[in-house]
Design a protein that fits this description.
Number of strands: 7
Shape: globular
Bound molecules: flavin mononucleotide
Largest sheet: 5 strands, parallel
Order of helices and strands: EHEHEHEEEHEH
Number of domains: 1
Helix content: 25-40%
CATH architecture: 3-Layer(aba) Sandwich
CATH class: Alpha Beta
C-alpha cells in the first residue's frame, strides 16, 4: 500500500498547503517506511472537468484505493475547494466501486484508510467562529470522504493566514504541531 500525496494549490512555491502537505508526508514516511509515496499534483497535471462521456477513470480511483494514507493539500478558494481538486473528487465517486446504494441507503466502500486534509485559508471559519457557515471547503471534503466510507478523516489546519504576521505564524505553528503529533 501507499501514501498518496495530493496537492491542488495554484500558488506554487508560496503555497502554504503544499509546504504543509510535504511536511505531513515526510513525517508519515518516517512512521511508515514500508509505504511507497505516490504523488498527484492536480495543478502540474490537471484532470479535465468530469463529463458523462468520459465515465469513470479507473486509474485515478485505483490510485486512491491503493493508498493506506491519503494526504490532500486543500486550500480554501472562494469558500470552497480549488476546481482542480473537485475534478479529482469527481473521479473517486464511482458507484459499485467506492460506494453503493442498498436497502439501508448509501454505503461507502473505502474504509480502512486515513485521509488527512491539509486545510489552509486566509480567514477564520472553524467551528464557533462568526463565519463558520461560510466554510464549504472542510465540510465538503469531510462529507465526501465520509460518504465513501472513510471513517478516519483528520484535519491539519492553518487558517487566518491573511490576518497579519502574528496570526499567520500562530496558524503555521498550530499546523506543524498537529503534524508532529500524527502517530499513525
Ligand atoms: C483564488 C483564491 C481564492 C481564495 N479564496 C479565499 C476565500 O474564499 N476565503 C479565504 O479565507 N481565503 C481565500 N483565499 C486565501 C487562501 O485560502 C490562502 O491564500 C491559502 O494560503 C491558500 O492555500 P495555498 O497557499 O496552499 O494556496 C483565496 C486565495 C486564492 C488564491
Amino acid at each position: 500500500m501507499t501514501i498518496l500525496h495530493v496537492d491542488s494549490s495554484i500558488q506554487g512555491d508560496t503555497s502554504v498547503s503544499r509546504a504543509l502537505s510535504r511536511a505531513a508526508v515526510s513525517h508519515l514516511a518516517g512512521l511508515h517506511p514500508a509505504l511507497a509515496i505516490v504523488r498527484r499534483d492536480l495543478v502540474a497535471a490537471p484532470l479535465a472537468h468530469f463529463t458523462a462521456a468520459e465515465g469513470a477513470d479507473a486509474a485515478v480511483l485505483d490510485e486512491f484505493l491503493a493508498a493506506r494514507i491519503v494526504v490532500v493539500g486543500a486550500p480554501m478558494y472562494n469558500f470552497g475547494i480549488p476546481s482542480q481538486l473537485k475534478s479529482w473528487l469527481d473521479r473517486l465517486a464511482v458507484p459499485g466501486r467506492s460506494f453503493r446504494y442498498g436497502p439501508q441507503g448509501p454505503e461507502g466502500l473505502c474504509g480502512g484508510r486515513t485521509v488527512l486534509l491539509v486545510s489552509t485559508r486566509g480567514g477564520v471559519f472553524s467551528d464557533g467562529s462568526p463565519r463558520a457557515e461560510m466554510d464549504h471547503q472542510e465540510g465538503h471534503l469531510r462529507a465526501f470522504f465520509g460518504f465513501l466510507g472513510v471513517a478516519d478523516v483528520r484535519i491539519i489546519r492553518a487558517e487566518g493566514l491573511a490576518l497579519g504576521e502574528a496570526a499567520q505564524q500562530a496558524a503555521l505553528q498550530a499546523a506543524h504541531d498537529t503534524i508532529r503529533q500524527l502517530a499513525a
